[in-house]
Amino acid sequence: MDIPILFEDNHLLVVEKPVNVPVQEDESGDDDLLTILKRDIKIRYEKPGNVYLGLVHRLDRPVGGVMVFAKTSKAASRLSDQIRRNAMEKYYLTIIRGEMDAPRAKLENYLVKDRRKNEVYVVGKDNKHGKEAELEYEVKEEEAGMSLLEIDLHTGRPHQIRVQLAHLGTPIYGDQKYGQNVNHPGQQIALWSHRLVLTHPVKKEDMTFTSYPPDTYPWNIWPAYISE
Known about the structure:
The protein contains three helices and eleven strands. The protein is globular, with a radius of gyration of 18 Å. The model has no long low-confidence stretch (mean pLDDT 96). 14% of the residues lie in helices and 35% in strands. Strands 1, 2, 3, 4, 5, 6, 7, 8, 9, 10 and 11 form an eleven-stranded mixed β-sheet that branches. Strand 8 (131-143) and strand 9 form a beta hairpin. By secondary structure, the protein is of the alpha+beta class.
């Protein structure tokens, strides 16, 4: 599998995750991104033994776009610390069914995950199991009963963007889990990891990495936002 590399040095590996590839090994037994990248590093650099590659954040299996991996344990620790401090900025593009009430706003909810069903639910603030979830959105375009949003993700809860938008009655196009009433089997979820802004773990330089959705429906309704 050919994984596009957006940036690489001795400390970081930034790639464009393909859709429908798990980030790490799961019960499906399918090839996962972490294993593929380790294998690639081992071959390209003729490394003996095990290859270290640190997984510091995740994307849901059906979601594609930019991801950063750490090539050393020091880099992994420092990137993880940036995420804990909300110092790594994570932006997504997504297409929802319907329109938002406001052109931009902050969404704040409390979420609980049912691990047995692998589903996440919005709960009240008083729920002792609820974890705070926060994001900001901006409406970029509207057409054909759908809206293109840019999401600034403040917290990284499982399925967070999908659940918070579905809770408003505006599920993401193609989301089979949280929008099954309006989406159909076979439709690819329109959620893309668009941009990461981080500080290099060693050089301390600010870095921005960007990836664009593919030239497929419904992304291609708005050609300015898709890859060339």
